[in-house]
Design brief:
Layout lengths: L4 H10 L7 E4 L2 H10 L4 E5 L6 H4 L2 E4 L2 H14 L9 E5 L3 E12 L4 E7 L6 H7 L5 E5 L7 H8 L4 H20 L2 E12 L4 E3 L3 E4 L8 H6 L7 H8 L3 E4 L4 E5 L2 H13 L4 E6 L6 H12 L6 E8 L4 H14 L6 E7 L2 H11 L4 E3 L3 H11 L6
Parallel strand pairs: 12-13, 12-14, 14-15, 15-16
Antiparallel strand pairs: 1-4, 2-3, 2-4, 5-6, 5-8, 6-7, 8-9, 8-10, 11-13
Helix pairs in contact: 2-4, 6-7, 9-11, 10-14, 11-12, 12-13
Bound molecules: guanosine-5'-diphosphate and manganese (II) ion.
Length: 381
């Protein structure tokens, strides 16, 4: 889960990391009012779960409450890089001497933490790493030992002497935040040295490990404050894994592996998935009805492919579930159904007897994918 900058900065503050004074504004009026409070000059920053705002017009230096209102109105109306924007962060304007960079992240392949620092902040760090790797300091941190003084010296040694002490205090807090909040990434770009010598985190990027949200109730609660897609919200409430893609075939399967394989086979027949949904172990009528509702509410879907391999899940139960679901909701597109595994024959018999006009039964995954691609009007050569 990527936090908005303003949420990241709340965490920073709670961990003793200095950040500019700021106010979240949800309307042009609120942005104007905040700017007035900061003496008539401020920075207005779009709040999205994406970076690159500086370059993309998502950060505006404003010189009056009126200008703050105008820029905010545009940001709220236009969104940012395809993301809806429902709030901006209005911050006091600070006189910057230089922009630095510091981050920690979890390296899943080695199982340790990596700390990064450079005196060339403000720019894209991936580009810097590729072009001038020498400008970037990197330390590996054993999670059992934690951040040691030599790590801190190595990282902050890349900064100009005047900024080292202030930066070291921040870097230390940043690492404890990473551990305590179960973050997989904490990044400050830019970390700035101000004209008066203070060091402040001007930006905050924090990614929380989704698997740790069960033990981070305060952070888990933040998830409800993102403006997410209505379809995704319904899927999440029902405990279903839903992912939106950009083709025309809606895919429902039981188990992540089977769903991924289904995407591949559909692609082999020249079609692309509009979305996919993993119903996991259970495929009751309720689950099926919710799944179909979720998949069908995506207007891009021309055909649904339900691919079930019965294990503990019995195909006869799935077959009844699909029929019951179709009794409750109206299917507007064809539904290709492939049932295999436990009680598959019984399941297919139930479907055949029902003779539902929308259901196309296919005995194998290959045939089901071919049918789906044809019905989506996307079948390749
Ligand atoms: P990002 O591009 O999405 O990472 O957004 P940032 O928060 O990093 O802001 C991008 C750039 O805007 C920074 O590198 C700064 O140069 C500039 N900026 C942000 N806040 C201030 C501020 O308070 N004063 C000044 N002068 N520049 C700022
Ligand atoms: Mn930034």
């Amino acid at each position: 889960m990527d936090l908005y900058e303003h949420m990241g900065k709340d965490l920073f503050r709670a961990h003793g990391i200095p950040v500019p004074q700021g106010v979240v504004a949800r309307s042009p009026e609120e942005a104007a009012e905040a700017t007035r409070r900061f003496g008539g000059a401020a920075v207005v920053k779009v709040q999205v779960q994406a970076g690159g705002r500086g370059k993309g017009g998502g950060v505006a230096l404003v010189d009056s409450p009126d200008e703050a209102a105008r820029r905010t109105a545009r940001m709220l109306a236009e969104g940012f890089a395809g993301h809806p924007v429902d709030r901006v962060l209005v911050e006091e304007r600070l006189p910057i001497e230089r922009e630095l960079y510091a981050s920690f992240l979890l390296d899943r392949s080695s199982g340790d933490y990596v700390g990064l620092a450079t005196a060339e902040g403000g720019v894209e760090i991936e580009a810097l790493a590729a072009e001038r790797p020498g400008a970037l300091r990197r330390v590996r941190i054993d999670p059992m030992l934690g951040l040691r003084p030599y790590h801190l010296r190595e990282l902050t040694g890349v900064f100009p002497p005047s900024a080292r002490e202030g930066a070291a205090a921040i870097v230390r807090c940043l690492f404890s935040l990473l551990r305590e909040a179960d973050a997989t990434l904490v990044e400050v770009n830019p970390l700035v040295e101000l004209v008066d010598g203070r060091v402040v985190a001007l930006d905050a990027k924090v990614t929380i490990d989704d698997n740790a949200l069960v033990r981070q109730p305060d952070l888990a609660a933040l998830r409800d404050r993102f403006p997410i897609d209505e379809v995704e919200r319904r899927a999440r409430q029902a405990g279903l894994q839903y992912v939106k893609l950009d083709g025309r075939v809606g895919i429902i399967g039981n188990g992540a592996g089977l769903v991924m394989a289904t995407l591949d086979v559909v692609a082999r027949y020249g079609a692309r998935a509009a979305n996919f949904l993993d119903v996991g172990g259970g495929a009751s009528a309720d689950t099926m009805a919710t799944s179909l509702e979720v998949i069908l509410s995506d207007p891009a879907v021309r055909v649904v492919l339900i691919n079930i391999f019965g294990g503990i899940t019995r195909c006869d139960v799935v077959a009844r579930g699909v029929l019951e679901a179709l009794g409750r909701i109206e299917a507007t597109v064809p539904i290709v159904l492939r049932l295999d595994g436990t009680n598959a024959e019984e399941g297919r018999r139930i479907i055949a007897e029902a003779a539902h006009p929308r259901i196309v039964s296919a005995p194998t995954m290959d045939e089901a994918a071919a049918q789906a691609a044809r019905l989506a009007g996307e079948a390749g050569p």
